[in-house]
Amino acid sequence: MGNLFCCVQINQSTVAVKERFGKYNDVLEPGCHCVPWILGSRLAGRITLRLQQLDVRCETKTKDNVFVTVVASIQYRVMADKASDAFYKLSNPKTQLQAYVFDVIRASVPMLNLDDVFEQKNDIAKAVEDELEKAMSAYGYQIVQTLIVDIEPDERVKRSMNEINAAARLRVATSEKGEAEKIVQIKRAEGEAEAKYLSGVGIARQRQAIVDGLRDSVLGFSVNVPGTTAKDVLDMVLITQYFDTMKEIGASSKSSAVFIPHGPGMVHDVASQIRDGLLQASSH
């Protein structure tokens, strides 16, 4: 019915190319238009102004001879003021876009190592976008955004990269574990040194207390028992301590201490050794 009355409807976000006797005449915007077909006018076609997306998969090789598949996503649309150029100059814009994407990616990626491809994917996308913008603007197309959405190396390369990463992390973990064990050993040695120092201090204090006690015992005994000498008192104290020690050893069923020689008569020799040592120290 619209063709009968020479009326056509153009939907929103769409433009139509009008021809008269096969020659370009005008671009019709959304709305209702009169196209008198009886005067040779007709609609040659319609073009959408909506944003379109083209995903391009390009296989190429990196500088370190690794084959990768780069997936680029191109977002583009027709410029309303150049709709006639987009309609007449290109018969298949997607094929044209794909060819430019292949050209730029295969010129950029072979100059980079595999790791650099992942790090510089934004630079690759920018290079593709600049080349497409420069080439497609002459045909009435605007490049809105170019994204490198995926970089897919060979499966064996992926596995190798994961193994390299795992080995590096294991090496770091081993190093950290070694440092931790080193710190533990140092702290343990410091603790043992401190413990030995404190043990030595305790033994020194114990011996000092024993010496003080012996001195007090000798002085007290000499005062209370006239005629005794310091030697007599020291021999008696040593014999008393000897029997106390033997008693403690005998009372324990799990004792492993052994005195060689261990007879009571040897106490006299011990006393002589102590006395001789004290006399030599006094002479010096």
UniProtKB/TrEMBL annotation:
Membrane topology summary: Lipid-anchor
Q: Does the keyword Lipoprotein apply?
A: yes
Q: Any idea where the Band domain is?
A: 5-165
What are the annotated GO cellular component locations?
A: plasma membrane
In terms of SMART domains, this protein maps to: PHB (SM00244)
Q: Where this protein primarily resides, as one coarse class?
A: membrane
What InterPro entries does the database record attribute to this sequence? Band7/mec-2_domain, Band_7, Band_7/SPFH_dom_sf
Which locations, inside or outside the cell, does it occupy?
Cell membrane
Q: Which UniProt keywords apply?
A: Lipoprotein, Myristate
Looking up CDD domains in the UniProt record yields: SPFH_like_u4 (cd03407)
**Do the record's keywords include Lipoprotein?**
yes
What is the name attached to this protein's record? Answer: Band 7 domain-containing protein
Source species = Juglans regia
